[in-house]
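Hi L.,

As promised, Twin-arginine translocation signal domain-containing protein:
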Amino acid sequence: MKKSKTSSGSSLTRRDFLTRTAAGTAMIAFAPVNTAFAANIDGKISWPAAASDYRFHMIGHAHIDPVWLWPWAEGMSVVHSTFQSALDRMNETPDFAFVASSAQFYQWVAENDPQMMKEIKKRVEEGRWNIVGGWWVEPDVNIPNGEAMVRQGLYGQKTFERLLGRKAKIAFNPDSFGHAGTLPQILNLQGMKHYVFMRPGPHEKEIPADLFWWKSPDGSKVLTYRIPISYNETQPVNRRVEQVLERFQNQPMKSFMAFYGAGDHGGGATKENIKSIEELKTENGAPEVIFSTMEKYFEEIDNKNLELPTVNEDLQHHAQGCYTAEIEIKKGNRQSEAALITAEKLAAVGSLAWGANYPKNEFSSAWQRILFLQFHDSLAGTSLPEHSTTAREGYGFSLDIAHQAAYKAIQKLEWQIPAEDPESEYMVVFNPNAWEVRKTVEYDFNWNDRHKSSRVEDEQGNPLPHQWALGTTETGSRKKLLTEVTLPAFGYRQLRLLDADSPSIQDGVTSSNNSIENIFYKISFSENGEIGILDKSTGDEVFAGKQKGCKAIILNDPSDTWSHGVKAFTDEIGAFEDAKVKVIQNGPVKATVRVVSTYGNSTLTIDWSLSKASRNIEADVSLDWHEQLKMLKFSFPVNVKSPEASYEVPYGHIIREANGDENPGQRWIDITGKQNGKTYGLTVMNDAKYGYSVNENDARISVARSAVFAHHRPKELNPENEYRWMDQGIHTFRMLLVPHSDSWKENNVAMTAEEFMAPPICIYQGIHGGELPKSDSFLKVDKTNIIVTSIKQAEDNSDIIVRCVESSGVPTTASIDLIFAASKWSGKFRACEIKSLRLNSHSGKVNEVNVLEEL
């Protein structure tokens, strides 16, 4: 390892040196650093002979956290004062240049100070104010789903173009706590070919060079630069140039970007910064320094034809505790993303197929609110507790818009479907997925004791299996109907409930004592609340050990909110136990067993359900959490050898080493290996969590932590103080367990995840006439690995955008039948490729576009 010498002659390893001086998480002061080169009598650095061979693009910058240890309203003020300061420095120093990201910031300026926006636009046109980032904010890029990352660029770039007449060319996200390996494709499709980041730093991830090609699984590449030392510098810049020159000599380039300016709470370039750059220009033997921008730097690099290494993986890890901290914000993000995507699909297709309204402005407002809340210190859970209230309000706003739009779109459809027998009850069930699904749906009806029997029929009069259960209320005659129905691809089916006999149900679900069973599985429950699953198709247990699944393990977690320095959570100190097991719903369509266990002051309730014809096992989880400095994980020790761990990531998947490290993931994690010589595995899905770990065959979901709000090491907690502890109280989420023979790809896990987050929607029908058929389909895809992830109206007119992704890593030729527009499209997908199709709403012609909806 390379050694560095301090002026006192002591030796430091390169890693020690970096650790001492690398930027901590925002606004953490650097440890004092001795100069690496000797100083002259006048205090100026005595540069080594080769120093003048290096060139430094000095990047005037102000990192702005619009929310962190302050509320977002204060962040707005910081944006305004920082931008004014940058304009002032430009007036004072003709060569000074400034870079700033985040379309949200410019939107605030445009709304509150139009004159400032005019000045900024003038400086942008001069090339001195460099808009970068291309996104709505500088987001976390592990936790948002793929479509949210697309929307960061869609709304960000469109806003830059509207306000400033141009888009960003450089993607910029220095403070995010890790970077999903699927980003290069998304950035390319947003018109950005270069990326600048800082975390993880050299002490957290070794890469072959700090300027490299970053390649995503589909083959897309971006030229990527890791910021040396920090994005902040308030002192004279010769110190920063000295540090970079000393520690980053073994690089394939001799041109660097060095960032300067006060940041985190804004501020930007100081007069002292600028004066020191002017002085450094005149120093004998010093590197060449110029006021510059990121665009100018990459223009220079692009022209050098350097031989640069390629990195083919995600850029991890930093602050692993942030995958789990502030679990209500995590759940709000997942729920809001899914609800908006579903609502847009229904309203967009409905706008052409049955005259539904498409509330474009409301959708945009909802997305922009979600995108703002994906700012890294918000979504990571590292902000002040008052912001958690703001986040709840924001997610509620977005969810309300989504749910209103979805139900109104289907209501418009329902009014056109005849429901004419006043002695019957009707509902329309809509499947928002582009393939046929078979589901158990639930709805509370008024069904009083005067009815001697009940029968549920489809539109052709075929009887459907059904059962009754307690309704959600205890007044009147509301009862919950559960019925099993097959629904057409992106389409609907009308169901009729009438007083008539039904045939007996064959192969139903049964439950007794501490077990629940259908034709596929028998589930049993231990006295401590763990489960065993016997897979009848193999005759083997899903979990290693008879009743070892979903063990609720408590781990000691004294780390700060970020979990700095923690790679894995492994210190087990207990588990939930003393379970009480009770059957709360008995088949034959669906049966549910409730398991209640305790640990310390906390209570865990899991309702395990099996449906008649389903190979998937449902769990509704309620956690009443009152622990401190502890972590809860659910353990799933899969009964396989030679396991491989696959994680869903934004618009893709990744295989990671099963070494116990904490990793980020999206909706599911999968363990597949060998069972009795055959391929077997388990996928575990959830609707709210993002932290996972896999140690050999033991897959774990990180359910909850209990840190103090925004506690950052090295500050130590005082046991005498009363702190605000995170994630206390009741939290709910859902899980789905999917045991499978063969791999997750062959079992269409990506489709199951879509169904899990976008279940059928039930709409009650009154009695009325109508001209539409009682069942119909509006869109179909002929390949199971091609997922239609988004359908929306174009931003500039009523054209329809259909976004698809290849989900299994297999090159595929597919056809999409756009039945709602009497149009079809066929084409080839690269492995893991994202395609956006633009359907002309008048002609029906389909063109492939980028994610900015441009040819």
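The chain is about 20% helix and 35% strand.

Thanks again for sending the construct details.

K.
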